[in-house]
Design brief:
Blueprint lengths: L10 E8 L4 H9 L9 H17 L9 E8 L4 E5 L12 E4 L3 H15 L5 E4 L2 H14 L15 E3 H8 L10 H7 L14 H6 L3 H25 L6
Parallel strand pairs: 1-5, 3-4, 5-6
Antiparallel strand pairs: 1-2, 2-3
Length: about 240
């Protein structure tokens, strides 16, 4: 396996999509639930059921949820999506699709790319990085793999476009803004969007190969749009 080496990229955008967690991982999460000591038995039963329902519905957000795709791109718009989704071929002119045999092999392939293309001066760009970076790190430890150098905590500077935009380009104070809203406000939203991030776990679990291709293209679009938003917000793009 080889990738074009470009060590020391100024900035790299990262975005991941996750799958539904396995039943044993869901059960471990459910076992951690504890009721408040002041709750009545009926309240305990109701709250426990609510917690289980929410945990199962949002299992793709659990730390143990497998990663289906890792999208990355540089400031020049060169994008790669690493994945272990299955289909015969995928031709796309706007990004490169790198198919792996398993989540573990995907993580190793991404590590090779990252170690070849980044150094301590590379800025990590993303959207809601408080999810992506910890989830990536725990996936490497879950598989007993060494972290890519850029994912070592406190090594590289990071810029979260969600906070960058909401704190500097909005007059109202907001704790969360979606990427869809950011790109619409910046007038860089693409037409004909086929899915949302909430669809990703179901698309990955589907036997429909077209949905797999749509998911990969969605991941590529996210990193490309996030990087473009970052360049605009930091005054690096425009006339």
């Amino acid at each position: 396996m080889s990738f074009r080496a470009n060590a020391g990229l100024d900035a790299v955008c990262i975005d991941i999509e996750t799958m539904h967690a396995e039943e044993d991982a869901i059960q471990r999460e459910l076992d951690l639930w504890q009721p408040a000591g002041t709750w009545k038995p009926a309240t305990v039963a109701t709250r426990k059921k609510e917690f289980e329902t929410k945990t199962r519905e949002k299992s793709a957000l659990l730390d143990a949820a497998p990663i289906s795709t890792i999208g990355v791109c540089d400031a020049q718009g060169d994008a790669v999506v690493f994945h272990w989704l299955k289909f015969d071929t995928m031709d796309c002119e706007t990004f490169y699709s790198y198919q792996c045999e398993s989540e573990r092999e995907m993580l190793k392939a991404f590590r090779t790319w990252a170690d070849n293309n980044t150094d301590k001066t590379t800025t990590i760009v993303g959207f809601n990085l408080n999810f992506d970076l910890p989830h990536l790190r725990i996936a490497y430890t879950r598989h007993g793999l060494r972290l890519p150098q850029m994912l070592i905590p406190k090594r590289n500077w990071s810029e979260d476009v969600m906070w960058l935009f909401s704190k500097n380009f909005m007059s109202k104070d907001t704790a969360f803004i979606s990427l869809d809203e950011v790109v619409k406000r910046l007038d860089i939203a693409p037409e004909g969007k086929q899915m949302s991030g909430a669809d990703a776990p179901d698309y990955a679990a589907s036997d429909d190969m077209e949905k797999h291709e749509t998911l990969i293209a969605y991941n590529a679009a996210d990193v490309l749009l996030t990087m473009r938003a970052f360049l605009i917000c930091t005054g690096q793009m425009g006339d």
